[in-house]
Amino acid sequence: AQKITQTQPGMFVQEKEAVTLDCTYDTSDPSYGLFWYKQPSSGEMIFLIYQGSYDQQNATEGRYSLNFQKARKSANLVISASQLGDSAMYFCAMREGSGGYNKLIFGAGTRLAVHP
Amino acid sequence: DAGVIQSPRHEVTEMGQEVTLRCKPISGHNSLFWYRQTMMRGLELLIYFNNNVPIDDSGMPEDRFSAKMPNASFSTLKIQPSEPRDSAVYFCASSSADRGTNTEAFFGQGTRLTVV
């Protein structure tokens, strides 16, 4: 069964606009972590933001914020004030269980194109 | 810290040859992951180690693939014999459980493997 689902293969946004990248997940474990990574065309994987299942508030990191809706099992990434350098693949990922000793699995990714 | 170091960055080999990919995790990290990335299958988790012990190798495609972690600072992924369908980018990532909760993984630059 697909644990992480990213339904948008590709998205585009106008520079300086906000964009939301969707992610839904499936787990029966009450303790889990959700992550977003960026992969630019150069290929490296860059960690962006983390949300814990017990966190009361949505995570934010600069222009990145995570819209965490636990009941819906969704963890959408919001990028505000898009920049040309935001054009990349974006991956949602999840670790189940506590202690950090658990595997990290990824969704299929969404390719974001920022237009000037 | 130098980050996760993978070698080689690029490898071109002939079908049937043995290929060994190497990874040095971030010092102090407890968990190490090997991923394979292709256009068709995305980011697949092949195997992960905790404290040098393989925990889950269910993602290893077949017996031609093997991975070892002889100590906390070194891991190898070996393919023997290699086949053209093994052509992909192989990532190594490491993470720490020091925070006691789920933690992000830091990725190496990847090894681009081409089997001809």
Number of separate helices of chain B? 0
First-last Cα distance of chain B: 36 Å
- Major beta sheet of chain A, specifics? 6 strands, mixed
How would you describe the shape of chain B?
Answer: globular
SSE order of chain A: EEEEEEEEEEEE
Q: Helices, strands, pairings?
A:
The complex is a heterodimer of chains A (116) and B (116).
Chain A: E1 4-5, E2 10-14, E3 19-21, E4 24-25, E5 32-39, E6 46-52, E7 60-61, E8 64-69, E9 74-79, E10 88-96, E11 104-106, E12 110-115
Parallel strand pairs in A: 2-12
Antiparallel strand pairs in A: 1-4, 3-9, 5-6, 5-10, 7-8, 8-9, 10-11, 10-12
Chain B: E1 5-7, E2 10-13, E3 19-24, E4 31-38, E5 42-50, E6 53-56, E7 65-71, E8 74-79, E9 88-95, E10 106-107, E11 111-115
Parallel strand pairs in B: 2-11
Antiparallel strand pairs in B: 1-3, 3-8, 4-5, 4-9, 5-6, 7-8, 9-10, 9-11
Walk me through the structure:
The complex is a heterodimer of chains A (116) and B (116). Chain A has no helices and 12 strands. Chain A is an all-beta fold and 116 residues long. In chain A, strands 2, 5, 6, 10, 11 and 12 form a 6-stranded mixed sheet that branches. Chain A has a 4-stranded antiparallel sheet with strand order 3-9-8-7, with no helix packed on it. In chain A, β5 and β6 form a beta hairpin. Chain A is globular. Chain A starts with a strand and ends with a strand. The mean pLDDT of chain A is 93. By secondary structure, chain B is mainly β. In chain B, 0% of the residues lie in helices and 53% in strands. Chain B has strands at 5-7, 10-13, 19-24, 31-38, 42-50, 53-56, 65-71, 74-79, 88-95, 106-107, 111-115. In chain B, the strands form 2 sheets. In chain B, strands 2, 4, 5, 6, 9, 10 and 11 form a 7-stranded mixed sheet that branches. Chain B has a 4-stranded antiparallel sheet with strand order 1-3-8-7, with no helix packed on it. In chain B, β4 (31-38) and β5 (42-50) form a beta hairpin. The termini of chain B are far apart. In chain B, 39% of the residues are buried. Chain A binds chain B through residues 31-33, 35, 37, 43-45, 47, 50, 52, 91, 95, 97-109, and chain B through 30-31, 33, 35, 42-43, 45, 48, 50, 55-56, 89, 91, 93, 95-107, 109-110.
